[in-house]
Amino acid sequence: MILKIIIVPFAMLAVVTARHSYQGYKVYEVQQKTREQANFLYELEQSNSNLDFWHLSKRLNDKAQVLVPPKEQRTFVADLMKNGFQYSVLVHDVENTIDDYSASVASRKPVSAEDRILHGYLRHSDVNQYLDELASKFPAKVKVEQIATSYEGRPLKTITINDKRNNSVIFLDAGIHAREWIAPATALYAINQLVENANENADILSNLTWVILPVVNPDGYEYSHQMERFWRKTRKPAGKCIGTDGNRNFDFHWGEVGASSSACSETYKGDAPFSEPETRAVRDEISKLKGQCKFYLSLHSYGNYLLYPWGYTSDLPDTWRDIDEVAQAGAAAIEQATGTKYTVGSSTNELYAAAGGSDDWAFAKADVPVAIVMELPGGGFGGFNPPASSIETSVKESWVGIRAMARKVAQKY
Ligand code: 0X9
Ligand code: ZN
């Protein structure tokens, strides 16, 4: 046997970091039966940045879902017991669920673009490549532009479909939160249908222009693929931690409620409003469309909610009925198609108060009359890890809702 000695320079070794392991991490499901218990969980979420609340709402009898690292589990459970909570362990070892996911992607050999979108989570460079392919294949109806560069230097690209003077515009974005992979997947399916299946979508194309940014936070998205599956924030260093919550970084009642000043928190508001190049990109695009943009739809996951302003107060805007009508149309269409139920209402009243969101900003500052956050279905173990095998069902169902909302907007504006 010939022994080969490969000399790897030390500097190269130093930059190779291992993927974050979730070995021993658990997801707890905690039922909040009283207002005191709901408040306790809310306070805990605000005060302990080691606990990652995957789901939390203010509704009584709802169940919170919390990702807890091994070193926090004993205190967390003791706190639950002391406060009379009923809880169960939803995932015993989170690391195992991630391995399951990788297997399902690796075993597929997709062919067409639609097939790739429906059966796997595309990496950011593949997303951009798909947009560029569409631009060269359909130059008359599609325009692809690099609108900004992320902190780590990735191109943020929008696709504009059916650009016509005097059309109302729908601005659709996804992936401001890195780990919510089903959101960019849904945006890609929307793009695929609007461009490559245009005949079937004539009703939402004839008087509408679509501007779609499928991955708002590509640095976080790539980091969640390569290093840390449940990464949420951007990737710009902040104090001794990394990342800002993009959906707390918009300049409208910035930082007033439900947003953290601690850089290590999952809901860090940033060191200033619009401190992140990615949120500035969304701001600048929507601002350019002022007066024309009638519908801002931001895709997130998970929990099956259609949420609208305000996110910073339990008051409702004067025109809330107009937004509610659009959201209800989406929820009704989905329920009719598949039986899946969505909860419709204002962010603060249905979920929790959280200021600095893109929806509140678009509605208040860019005069977009209909601004909605769609929390797509979860799946897999807990909610942020739907297996690749469920993408097709999920995005097709969501597309029914998005279509119905777009039709309603086309009628109203
Ligand atoms: O907290 C968020 O940013 C959204 N939920 S998520 O689980 N995807 O993180 C909800 C945002 C609702 N809108 C505002 N609070 N403005
Ligand atoms: Zn989100």
Write a structural description.
With 413 residues, this protein is of the alpha/beta class. The protein folds into 2 domains: 26-92, 2-Layer Sandwich (Alpha-Beta Plaits), CATH 3.30.70; 111-412, 3-Layer(aba) Sandwich (Aminopeptidase), CATH 3.40.630. 38% of the residues lie in helices and 19% in strands. It is built from 13 helices and 14 strands. The chain has helices at residues 10-15, 35-47, 70-82, 94-106, 113-119, 124-137, 182-196, 218-226, 277-288, 320-338, 347-350, 358-365, 391-412; strands spanning 26-31, 52-55, 63-68, 86-91, 142-149, 155-161, 168-174, 208-213, 237-238, 241-242, 293-301, 305-308, 343-346, 370-376. It has an 8-stranded mixed beta sheet, sandwiched between helices. It has a 4-stranded antiparallel beta sheet with strand order 2-3-1-4, with helices on one face. Strand 12, helix 10 (320-338) and strand 13 (343-346) form a beta-alpha-beta unit. The radius of gyration is 21 Å and the shape is globular. It starts with 9 loop residues before the first helix and ends with a helix. Mean pLDDT is 93; it is low at 1-14. The chain binds N~2~-sulfamoyl-L-arginine and zinc ion.
Quick structural summary:
This protein has helices at 10-15, 35-47, 70-82, 94-106, 113-119, 124-137, 182-196, 218-226, 277-288, 320-338, 347-350, 358-365, 391-412; strands at 26-31, 52-55, 63-68, 86-91, 142-149, 155-161, 168-174, 208-213, 237-238, 241-242, 293-301, 305-308, 343-346, 370-376. It has 413 residues and is α/β, with parallel strands linked by helices. It has two domains: 26-92, Alpha-Beta Plaits (2-Layer Sandwich); 111-412, Zn peptidases (Aminopeptidase).
